[in-house]
Amino acid sequence: MIPLSPAQKPFDDDPRSRLFVALDVPSRQEAENLLSRLGGSVRRVKVGLELFFAEGPRFVEVLAERGYEVFLDLKLHDIPHTVYRAARLLPAGAVLFLTVHASGGREMVRAAYEGIREARVRGEKHQASPKDVLAVQNSPSYAPPYLLGVTWLTSLGEAEFARFGIDRRQSVGILAEEALLGGAAGLVVSAWEVTSLRAALGPGPIFVVPGIRPAFSRGEDDQRRVSSPGEAIRSGADAVVVGRPIVWAPDPRRAAEAILEEIAAALFDLPPRR
């Protein structure tokens, strides 16, 4: 694996490159209604299990055709052979990120990585010269789609870790290492662990943080290890995923723009390039 440099990460100075809106809705129609309400405030979206099961890979391609960059959050977790055969069917040209559970081990992560490479080559064969295809076959792990290893779900709190007999701080480092050694370009990790992982792993890995709950978010839900958008970025996250605080907001665009303002302020506080 060739580690990323900060300059090779798929982010820029536009705060919209740091925000993935989770399209956690059960149908294409509801997703399109939400995107219509969001307007130009969003350019990156996350498709999870619910919408993917409802609409399948073709809707991921439709989103890409409309200019959205898609984080396909399927959290693959099975024996390496099965994960490889699933990942090779990825609509590679339509996906920016794909997730696997790091707890599947580095061999499973490597299988997903190899599957992604095959999907990428297959996609390029339809529109590229033999020379271009060879370049794709030899491309390093920072060529999209980027594979991200999920460490611990943000719905797990300290009570669960105690019940499982797991040291959260130590184990998240082990999971991160397994994912990166398997070929992942980065991690999906809670803001609670970002600072220590960034210190240990340096600026190279991509860190995407879910479990984001801005100050205006109201009500309890199943997320436990949460943070605000600004806290996550200042802690070392490259991007955040936000679902219910935007999807359930009376005015989703206004909610997204408030989060973008917070991200912009956090980016301003950071050194020019991590």
Q: What features would you describe in this structure?
A:
It is a single chain. The chain has 274 residues and is an alpha/beta fold. The chain has one domain (6-269): Aldolase class I (TIM Barrel, Alpha-Beta Barrel), CATH 3.20.20. Helix content is 45%, strand content 14%. It is built from 12 helices and 8 strands. The protein has helices spanning 28-38, 49-55, 57-65, 80-87, 106-125, 130-137, 158-164, 168-181, 191-201, 229-235, 244-247, 252-269, and strands at residues 19-22, 44-47, 69-76, 95-101, 146-150, 186-188, 206-209, 239-242. The protein is globular, with a radius of gyration of 18 Å. It starts with 18 loop residues before the first strand and ends in a 5-residue tail after the last helix. 42% of the residues are buried. Mean pLDDT is 88; it is low at 128-138. Keywords: Decarboxylase, Lyase, Pyrimidine biosynthesis.
CATH superfamily: Aldolase class I
Number of strands: 8
Give the CATH class: Alpha Beta
What structural category characterises the helix and strand content?
alpha/beta
First-to-last CA distance: 20 Å
**Whole-number total of structural domains:** 1
Envelope shape = globular
The largest sheet is:
8 strands, parallel, barrel
As residue ranges, the low-confidence spans are 128-138
CATH topology: TIM Barrel
Element order: H for helix, E for strand: EHEHHEHEHHEHHEHEHEHH
Determine the fraction of residues in helical runs and give it as a percent range. 40-55%
Based on the coordinates given, report the CATH architecture.
Alpha-Beta Barrel
Percent strand equals 5-15%
